[in-house]
Prior knowledge:
Layout lengths: L1 H6 L3 H14 L4 H11 L5 H15 L4 H14 L2 H14 L5 H12 L3 H14 L5 H19 L15 H16 L6 H14 L4 H14 L4 H16 L3 H15 L3 H16 L3 H10 L7 H17 L6 H14 L3 H14 L6 H14 L3 H14 L4 H17 L3 H14 L6 H12 L6
Helix pairs in contact: 2-4, 4-5, 5-6, 6-7, 7-8, 7-9, 8-9, 9-10, 10-11, 11-12, 11-13, 12-13, 13-14, 14-15, 15-16, 15-17, 16-17, 18-19, 19-20, 20-21, 20-22, 21-22, 22-23, 23-24
Amino acid sequence: MAYGYGFAGKFEKAISEYLILVLENPAMISFVKAQLAQMNEQQGALAAFTTAVDRAVRQEPLNKTYRELAAWLYLEAGDYQKALQTNVALDRLENMNGANIYNFAQTAADAGYFEVAEEAYKMILSQYATSPMAPNAQLALATMLRKRAETLMEKALSPAGLPLSAPNYEAAKQAYQQFADAYPQHPLTPQMLFELAELYQTVFFDLANAEATHRRIEERFFGTEYYWKSQYELGQLAVLQNNLEQANTYYNKVHVSLRTGELAEKAQFQKALIAFYQGHFEMAKSTTEIINQNTTTDVTNDAIELKVIIRENTEQDTVWVPMNLFAKARLFERQRKFGDALNKLDSLIVHFKDHTLIDEARFARAGVLSALGQFPEAIEAYKTVQKDYPKTYLADRALFAIAEILEQSDLDKRKAIDQYAEVLMKYPGSLLAPEVRSRIRKLRGDKISS
C-alpha cells in the first residue's frame, strides 16, 4: 500500500505507512530505504519524506530507527550538516563511543564534504579521546586533509622549489605528526609513518625528514609490510639524492627478499631504470625482460615502454650519445633538476634532429616545461608532438597532458573538458580512454554512484 501511495504522489500517506512498518519491525529499515530511494526522484517526494520523519523524531526522540532514517534522508538531500547532527544523536543513543560518527565522517569525506568530515573527526578526538575510534579518526583526518589538498590542487613548492601556501597539506602533516606522538605503539602507526614520509617526499620534497621517518619504520617494524615499502622508498630517496648505487642496494634487497609480487617487480623495474640512467642500456633491457609480462600492472606497462625505447633507439646506433642525453634528462627530471633536464633535451633535439629518439625527446621536453610552470610553452610543445607524430603512442598522451595542464591551471573547466573530449574523438581506442571519461565526469560534477 505504501509503495502505491508513493508512486501516486501521495507522499505523506506513503511515509506514514513506512514509519508504522519500521516502528513495528526496525529490521525493515533497509527495505524501507530501498523503497524510498525509488521514489525520491519524484518532485517533492524527498522533502515530504524528510518533513514527516523529522516530525516523527521530535515526537519520539529516543527512537533510534527514526533517527537512522532521518540521517539517511539528509544524505539523500545532500544536507551533510544535518546528517552529522543526527548521527551524533544516534551515536549517543546507541553508546557507540564515536563509531557511528566515524562511519558518517568516512561517508562525508568520500563524497567530498570535507568540512563536515573534518568537524566529525575532530568531534571524536575531543569528545571520545580514549575511545578505540580516536586513533582511526586521527589517521582518517590526516588522510582526508591530504585528499582535500589534492582536490584543491594545492602545491607546497613552486617549480623553482620555493615554498607555497598549502594549508591542507600542512594540516595533514600536523595530523600525522600528532598521531605519531599520541599512539606510538598503535597497529596503525607503521601506515601513518609511511604516509607521513610520503607526504614529506612527494609534496614538500623534504628528503631529510622523509628519510628520517622511513628510518623510524626500519628500526621499529622490521619484516612488516610497511618495512618493505619503506625499504623501497629509501631507494627512491637515494635516486633523488643522486646516490644510484645505494638505491640499487635497496631495490635489490626488496626484490631478492620478496621475490614475487608487485613491490618486488617495482624494485626490479627501478633496477632497470638505474642501469638506463647510467648508460647500461643492454643491462636495462635485459632487466625489463625478467619482469612478468603477463600482467597489466603499471610496472609491467612501464617496463615494456622502457624496453621498446631502448630497442628502437640503440639497434642502429653504436655511439649512444643521444640515448645517454635522454637518460640523463630523465634522471634530472626525476630529481627536480628541471633546468639541467631541459639542457640535455635541447642538446639532443638540436644536434640529433634526425635520430629515432627525437619524438620521445620532444614529448619529454614538453613535460619538463609543464613541471617548470611554463604552461603555454608546454601546451604548444605537446600540440607539436601530436601534430608531428599522430600515429605514435605519444599522440593521445600529448592531448591528455594538455587537458591535465588546463585542468590544473585554468579556472574555466570547460576548456579541460573539451580537451579531454578531443582525446576520445581523435583516439577512441586509446588506453587512456577510461581515465579520460572519469576526468570528464569529475569536471562536470556528475554524481557517481558507489
